[in-house]
Amino acid sequence: MADGDIGRLIVACPDRHGIVAAIATSLAEAGANIITSDQHSTNPEGGTFFLRMEFHLAGLAERRAALDERLARVAEDLQLRWRVSAATERKRVAVFVSRSDHCLLELLWRWRRGELDMDVVAVISNHPDHEQEVSRFGVPYHHVPVTAESKARAEERQLELLAGKVDLVVLARYMQVLSPPFLEAVGAPVINIHHSFLPAFVGADPYLRAYERGVKLIGATAHYATEELDAGPIIEQDVARVSHRHEPAVLARIGGEIERLVLARAVGWHLDDRVIVHGNRTIVF
Amino acid sequence: MADGDIGRLIVACPDRHGIVAAIATSLAEAGANIITSDQHSTNPEGGTFFLRMEFHLAGLAERRAALDERLARVAEDLQLRWRVSAATERKRVAVFVSRSDHCLLELLWRWRRGELDMDVVAVISNHPDHEQEVSRFGVPYHHVPVTAESKARAEERQLELLAGKVDLVVLARYMQVLSPPFLEAVGAPVINIHHSFLPAFVGADPYLRAYERGVKLIGATAHYATEELDAGPIIEQDVARVSHRHEPAVLARIGGEIERLVLARAVGWHLDDRVIVHGNRTIVF
Amino acid sequence: MADGDIGRLIVACPDRHGIVAAIATSLAEAGANIITSDQHSTNPEGGTFFLRMEFHLAGLAERRAALDERLARVAEDLQLRWRVSAATERKRVAVFVSRSDHCLLELLWRWRRGELDMDVVAVISNHPDHEQEVSRFGVPYHHVPVTAESKARAEERQLELLAGKVDLVVLARYMQVLSPPFLEAVGAPVINIHHSFLPAFVGADPYLRAYERGVKLIGATAHYATEELDAGPIIEQDVARVSHRHEPAVLARIGGEIERLVLARAVGWHLDDRVIVHGNRTIVF
Amino acid sequence: MADGDIGRLIVACPDRHGIVAAIATSLAEAGANIITSDQHSTNPEGGTFFLRMEFHLAGLAERRAALDERLARVAEDLQLRWRVSAATERKRVAVFVSRSDHCLLELLWRWRRGELDMDVVAVISNHPDHEQEVSRFGVPYHHVPVTAESKARAEERQLELLAGKVDLVVLARYMQVLSPPFLEAVGAPVINIHHSFLPAFVGADPYLRAYERGVKLIGATAHYATEELDAGPIIEQDVARVSHRHEPAVLARIGGEIERLVLARAVGWHLDDRVIVHGNRTIVF
User: Fold this and answer.
1) Is 0.90 exceeded by the ipTM?
2) Rounded distance, CA A116 to CA A269, Å?
3) What is the pLDDT of residues D201-216, one digit of tens each?
4) Cβ A238–C217 below 8 Å, yes or no?
5) In which domain, by residue range, is D240 found?
6) Are D24 and D56 in the same domain?
7) Are residues A60 and A16 in the same domain?
8) Does residue B106 sit in the same domain as residue B239?
9) Of the residues C44, C62, C86, which one is the last residue of a structural domain?
10) Rounded to whole angstroms, how far apart are CA atoms B112 and C255?
């Protein structure tokens, strides 16, 4: 099977009788073979229905228009929101980072190994530290300093750098809060890694606060950034066991492992169109 | 939605074009609404396709025959092996146990709480120990002693007790090896809990051998029993962290927790028709 | 080694030079052999030092007084708070429970199997539901109904039942908040199991709120009850993975497994004198 | 506290009365303050006793000889094997690697971040692939090709490169089996990462065999290399959940994450003198 012949169909609609039959029939008539299929209904009576199918269609590029036409007809009948993408359409990604490089390197390294299907188009940092490291991956590095006074201008500069060029922004331990106007203007989803098991320890210094509270597990949370800090839809979380022996600096080191893995998983799922936002929750297929 | 109107369709067949469309259309035409659907193909080109759907069909009992007829027609066209069951058809289960009661009690207690959809029709043990405990759950307790000499006769007695009365046998820490003729004659799948992370420590005394090998995690494995000891298809496994401080007796205690959870999950999935055996592997939907 | 000859020494004191040498020498001179030893210092310069030793002393009962005398001398020199107990001194435990029996039964089962070194002296519930079940374990069951109006009287009744008779109270999913005066009067530590990964979801209905927040892991927390609800020192926590497919009722069922294990571990460690409270944190040896 | 004033004492000896008292007294008399202490006895009556202490001794470098003298006296009395090291004495480490870079880079990143207290003195590979990457870390890269015929000569070359220069060899997915003579001649412990949950899947292609066996968890094991392949003392293990959906290539990718973390933990503990080998098992303090 050629990668170029693999497509993904994402559907969201009011749940009702016959959706799967109509879609599967459309695909079959278009010559497509369903490879994987996941679906979820928040409530079979009156809820919302979500579907993700991967399918194989020999000559997808040429036959895409005909497929879209078929699906459009079904969609109109059933009031579907839908979207088809080819598995080979890579999302363009910008990574924001501050001083800590562990999440950044994890993403770049997985990308180089072919584990993350994306084009990294820019790394933006409020520090100059990672320029050399990033350049070795062939990625432009933009140092945009941020202070309390310069923040608005810095965000303008960041928006210029990104305008029309990205499908996803990843905050890989970027320690500046992005303003609501920025989030609105950026025109792409933003995934953040928060260094706690949300909703515990929203805000600053979660490892210090975890230490003070004496928790026995620490965690990390990858979520879509929204206007309200650390309150957006959660994509993935994980935890590690800690004890009274671990001071805040050690918690931060142990947590760093979790942050890397959680962020890499969340970004990978997003790139593969596996994450659907529904209200403040996510469906992850 | 009435529970009695919920059905499950399990399908296994050579993978080919149009299966989902044909089945979903059949269900839709029969008036059924698909609630959940999981599918897996070992290889979209020439592999085996597996499907599990839960659907709602108002008046399932009365309309079952018509549905079956439709599906039979599709099945013939596409060479499907298939099976429909109503969610309310409870499987009849016999539990085998020796001295340790932890797995037995876990199953009985979850059953009483309504977490396991089954009818426990018998507990069979080579020891008399649990008679009183089991009787309080309203389940017949059969003490069938087993010695090296009496084993064949004991198995005959067990088969008499079970003949035509069970859909599933669960070995909840039953420390006797069942003979191949027994497994053939019993006429129902047999789920065993093995107290190691298979394929490590096949056979006797796994906790002692785990201790001697100095592993840092111990585990438990629920699998279908087959002629070859501890080699049948694995349904579920889990592990717990241990250290040099834990002697074999402590490993057994920690492992007991894992055994209980792993067996309860495996039995629950089997009861819900979520487990499909394919060669020596399982698909768990 | 006879169990009766095994003792435990717990020490807490300002950290300073020579503590271990002084204590170990005292024990050695008293004829005791140290079996296990754990220690922790919050800060070797000016912090607090904690020690837990298990030791063997042939004829402990008879030689206890002499040992205590030696230790008292060391303690005076070094300003130690200390406590020796024999491993065979079982703590007297009362369990409080409401409708859900899973945590209660987990404790009673483990106790019967010899996994928890305690004497269960009473089960107290605001519901009559578990009387028969509990009586089979040979434990008195006290039904003390609680309403908003009767709460003060109910707590008086509970205190009468417990006065001078318990070393530990375990809230095994007891859904009433105990008042500060009760906690002060009861004269024994109180361990509670909270059905969330604290400090997330303090208060009522944590599973519903976990569902609404869309977390990907749910958890449970065993902690000492203090005046401020769900804010006491944490003894143990654990989590389980969940997904968009799990509705609040399913989260509660999955969480129930975690609650049982977390509470049983915390109670076991407390019974073995492994948990030391320091401010709002615990040291767990 | 200056890092240079922190020492570690490792002791192994037949268990007997008074060891801790004697050692702690020696340290106290030498002016050292014990910071952390861990001990383990395989059996308080006739077993082996292990101890690891971290202590602070102002002016350790100058007072080391006097401390050693004191300890030597105690050691003679009690038949102790013992060893003191300063926390600042960094072990010299050589890393062996084949094609996969994930374990190598994990170690180099952590080293650069100051998370692994070592000097990486060489990377040796049977492939030229990682030369540029490694050189950026300022580490010499030696390409030593290995074929069936050249293996003996290759090992000679490796031994020349390492002779007298390393305290630890790490096999970071080095896919050649080292011969017993090499292991004997190298004069330093060798830590290997095996890509399975040992003792399951000893030998080649563990992910393929895990797939074929249908396990539900895959794992990785860091162990000391010994003459018998994959049978040496285990330092650390961990697992990840997998399902029927994961083909061998995906298992290898998921497993790679576990390999990285498990190896990094094992190496870190070894560097901190936390791992003691006892027969074919390890004590990890």
Assistant:
1) yes
2) 9
3) 999 999 999 999 999 9
4) yes
5) 91-284
6) yes
7) yes
8) yes
9) C86
10) 18
